Amino acid sequence: MATEKEIVVSGIRPTGYLHLGNYFGAIRNYIRMQEEFNCYFFVADWHSLTTHPNPKDLQANVMRVLAENIASGLDPEKVTLYAQSHVPEIAELYLLMNMLAYKGELERVPTFKDKVRLQPENVNAGLLTYPVLMSVDILIQRAVKVPVGKDQGQHLEMARNFAQRFNERYGNLFPEPEAFNYGDNLVRILSLDGKGGKMSKSENEMATIYLSDSDEQIRQKLRKAKTDSGGVPGEPMPESVANLIEIMKLVSTPDTVQFYVDAFNAGSIRYGDMKTQLGEDMVKFISPIREKAAALQADPTYLRKIMKEGAEKARVNAAQTLQQARNLIGLNYY
Ligand code: TYM
Hints:
By secondary structure, this protein is mostly helical.
């Protein structure tokens, strides 16, 4: 029965085009999890408001993220897909949870410190309390597993802290959620420029492969990917090459990967060949997703229907948790 399955929650901010990091850090897990778990996947539109997007861009981005999730293999019949802002219960629990979140701990969050450094002119309260909202997204559905990339690990730790803090003060309500990946470790896909940063929606477009890239863009970006000057037998693999091998493992056959790993170890690797091969395998992987996503975006009526039905389901489960939270806190006067 659906209610007996473990609950899973994850979200993606609609702040730009989805890329390989989003796919391999998160969406790939969603697709497998939909068969085994009771999954709630949402577009984190409130979270994206910290950067004040213009309303038209916001709407286009929300619809695209939804379309790209479905095009990647999420089945709206199996999972609950919704926009965060369509579940107002989240906002109330966020208000309640903010009373248990301390300024000091929020200021110490690495993602907050990064934002303060990158956008000192826009350090708003939403940014500071971002991890509280994210925790509530998860806790309100009483999720136990949260498929995310490595960059979200710290936020998950905070979600566990908030769950514990609430449970200790008011009584047991929230399970403690864990970050989840089918492999051993959480995934971090690096950008192709070899500078060590992660692929991200809004930075360095030439070093990021998007699910919406054309075949030619994919080939071109991979041709330009950073490698090194050539393997020397016995030398450790540079990070930029290791990242390409990791990406190759995701889209190429095991034999192809092994061939290039062996060539690296033997000092005979030809990076041009490797990048051409990876380009072709990547095109095969991305082009069906891109085409399906385009077709879905041409049918906004369908996407709206999915979102609406998803929000209705997500609200039922969220409302139950919220009511229990109100009761435990003592906000039940009649
Ligand atoms: P966001 O929108 O930045 O990213 C969506 C998902 O993609 C993963 N990801 C990556 N994984 C590996 N390598 C990369 N280069 C890479 N870049 C992104 C992210 O880890 C994430 O899983 N705060 C979240 C959104 C959110 C959320 C939630 C997630 C809001 N509420 C509740 C889970 C549960 C974020 O900004 O993700």
